[in-house]
Write a structure and sequence with these properties.
This protein is 33% helix and 18% strand. The mean pLDDT is 93. Helix 1 crosses helix 2 and helix 4 packs antiparallel against helix 6. Strand 4 and strand 5 form a beta hairpin. The longest helix is centred in the first third of the chain and has 19 residues. The termini are close together. Strands 1-10-9-6-7 form a five-stranded antiparallel beta sheet, with no helix packed on it. The chain contains seven helices and ten strands.
């Protein structure tokens, strides 16, 4: 196993919502969802709390389980935590406040990679991204708004200091939770670990038998390479050329002044 790393977007490691889990048979990168509300859970931001609870569930997981059983066990672990805190019913009714996380897991026993949400994987030199339609839409809306602001005379520095494009799409970001794990069949629905039944049809299973190397990463790395150094260098070059994240690395948020990236990030490379 070569280098692995989880890095916060700001200067406080305690606020990093991405994490790495390693056991004998399971290795995972977990991406806690960026909070849309100021609510804390056990003193942590919702995404950070979700990452820690998913780690707990993985520690207890039997690696012989298939992905659907495994996801159900993780979901049950989160739901039980909600019940102990007395907030299960509230979170059922208000999905925007749920601690949520995406995950990509390498299972040594089953020789499979599992993707729930938008974390990425690479087997040898083949990348597997899992982006969702609703993010493409909000990303395009933000970039369009920012382009209009530039045409109206705003400078890139002004927009970096105050991301009016993200403010523009914030109502969509808050309300898109209505479609997370939504079982109604909408094309905009998306999957995430949040303590409620996951959209199983969107869970990805990738055959990793025969792999010489496996890379797992959160979407804080827009492009994966065989080494952490290459992946980090690409990210930093993209940020230098496109700090607003509206051209090279289009996204729902840009580089905030004082931060070292647009998002938290985690990366691990495995040699099976």
């Amino acid at each position: 196993m070569s280098k692995n790393s989880s890095k916060e977007k700001n200067q406080d490691p305690q606020l990093c919502e991405d994490g790495i889990f390693k056991s004998k048979d399971l290795i995972a990168v977990i991406d806690g969802a960026t909070a849309k509300t100021p609510i804390l859970y056990d003193g942590m931001l919702p995404g950070k709390a979700a990452t820690e609870k998913v780690k707990e569930a993985l520690q207890q997981l039997n690696p012989s389980l298939d992905v659907y059983e495994a996801v159900d066990r993780i979901t049950q672990h989160l739901a039980e935590w909600y019940r102990k805190r007395g907030c299960y019913q509230h979170l059922k009714e208000v999905p925007a406040e749920r601690p949520s996380a995406s995950v990509v897991i390498y299972n040594r026993v089953r020789k499979e990679i599992w993707q729930v949400g938008d974390c990425a994987a690479m087997i040898d030199n083949v990348c597997f991204y899992n982006r969702k339609l609703i993010d493409d839409i909000t990303t395009q809306a933000r970039c369009l708004f920012l382009q209009m602001q530039l045409e109206l005379g705003k400078t890139a520095e002004e927009l970096s200091a105050c991301d009016s494009g993200r403010e523009f799409i914030m109502p969509l970001l808050k309300n898109q939770s209505l479609l997370q794990n939504n079982l109604g069949g909408s094309e905009y629905a998306w999957e995430v670990l949040d303590g409620f039944p996951v959209l199983k049809k969107r869970i990805k299973i990738i055959d990793a038998s025969g792999a010489k190397s496996v890379v797992l990463a959160s979407d804080g790395y827009p492009k994966l390479f065989q080494t952490l150094e290459e992946s980090e260098a690409y990210l930093q070059n993209a940020l230098a050329d496109d700090p607003l994240c509206m051209n090279i690395n289009k996204g729902t948020k840009g580089l905030t002044k004082g931060n070292n990236s647009f998002d938290d990030r985690a990366y691990i490379r495995i040699e099976p």
